[in-house]
Amino acid sequence: MIKPLKLQPEFKEIIWGGNRLKTEYNKKSNLNNIAESWELTVRSDGMNTIIGGEFDGITLEKFIEINGFDVVTNKSLDRFPLLIKFIDAQDNLSVQVHPDDEYGLKHANSLGKTEMWYIIDAKPGAKLVYGLKAGCTNEMFANAIKHGNVEDMLNYVDVKKGDVYFIPSGLVHAIGSGILLAEIQQNSNITYRVYDYNRIGKDGKPRELHVNDALNVIVNRSEEEIKKIQYSTSVKNNTTLANCQYFKVDKFNIDGMLQFSTNAESFNSILCLDGNGKIIYNNEVFEISKGDSYFIPAKLGSYTVNGKLEIIISKIN
């Protein structure tokens, strides 16, 4: 019988990562840091395994093979559609941009990347790079890259816990130090770095930049244009963080019980940000607590979440 599935994440150690996911979210790893914890992933470079139950220890990919792609969606897709992460930035991430689907498929045989961030926590003074400064053209930015004054051309924004940032393909962006966030994105790992603070990688060399590709895909959008993309599928409501052509993301603060369901069009991904409780399906109980990730198969029908907890539920559109 198809049931809710608790997932074991895939951890990534990266030069800018910290250890808050170990100390605060019970992530167990021998890596020096956990920069990223991939909480929902079906990729060759990162794969969830299932914890507990009939499918304990098998990969999510194998589960889908056994039960058919209908556990993901009844839509005609050639790959798993989403990638969901916790990201802990102890240091600044590189300044980067992602392509759209057309450019990604043509140049890297991959989907592009539209994504969104929910800020779980941010230290005082924490900032994001969110686009280019007003009036900065691509030509001006290219000149800044050439002459080493990229930071003068970036739009910095102060962030706090609970903020939401939507990053459509083409938007220059970077996570600043002291930020812990949840990222929901298209299932793509194409990143074009344009600036990396002249950092040296593990191999003793400056990390690779991708300036030409980046300049080819940068799109300067106004805040109003970004919001139109973020909520292009429906009107924003009290729980919705984003509802675009690729995904719908809602956040719930539960104190008691709420009922949810999946239909044939999409699975649900549940990411627990805080607290603890239970997922109840067909009279069976599945414990959930801070840091846990669950895959709720499509067509499962109704289930409830009970307890005192803060969760994000993502699905595809």
What is this entry, summarized?
By secondary structure, the chain is mainly beta. It contains 6 helices and 21 strands.
What do these coordinates show?
Helix content is 14%, strand content 40%. With 317 residues, the protein is mostly beta strands. The protein has helices at residues 20-23, 60-67, 101-108, 138-147, 211-217, 223-230; strands at 5-8, 10-12, 36-40, 42-43, 46-47, 49-51, 82-89, 95-97, 115-122, 127-132, 154-158, 164-167, 173-175, 179-186, 192-195, 240-243, 247-262, 268-281, 284-289, 293-296, 301-316. The strands form five sheets. Strands 1, 6, 16, 17, 18, 19, 20 and 21 form an eight-stranded antiparallel β-sheet that branches. Strands 2-3-7-14-9-12 form a six-stranded antiparallel β-sheet. Strands 11-10-13 form a three-stranded antiparallel β-sheet, with no helix packed on it. The radius of gyration is 19 Å and the shape is globular. It has two domains: 5-242, Jelly Rolls; 253-316, Jelly Rolls. 41% of the residues are buried.
Task: Provide the descriptors you would attach to this structure in a database record.
317 residues; mainly beta; Jelly Rolls; eight-stranded antiparallel sheet; 40% strand
Can you write the helix and strand succession as a string? EEHEEEEHEEHEEHEEEEEHHEEEEEE
Shape: globular
Mean pLDDT, all residues: 96
What is the helix content?
10-25%
Q: What is the CATH topology classification name of the largest domain?
A: Jelly Rolls
CATH homology superfamily of the largest domain:
Jelly Rolls
**CA-to-CA gap between the ends?**
25 Å
Helix count equals 6
- Roughly how many Å is the radius of gyration? 19 Å
Low-confidence stretches: none
- Structural class by sheet pairing and helices: mainly beta
* CATH architecture assignment of the largest domain: Sandwich
Number of strands: 21
How many discrete domains? 2
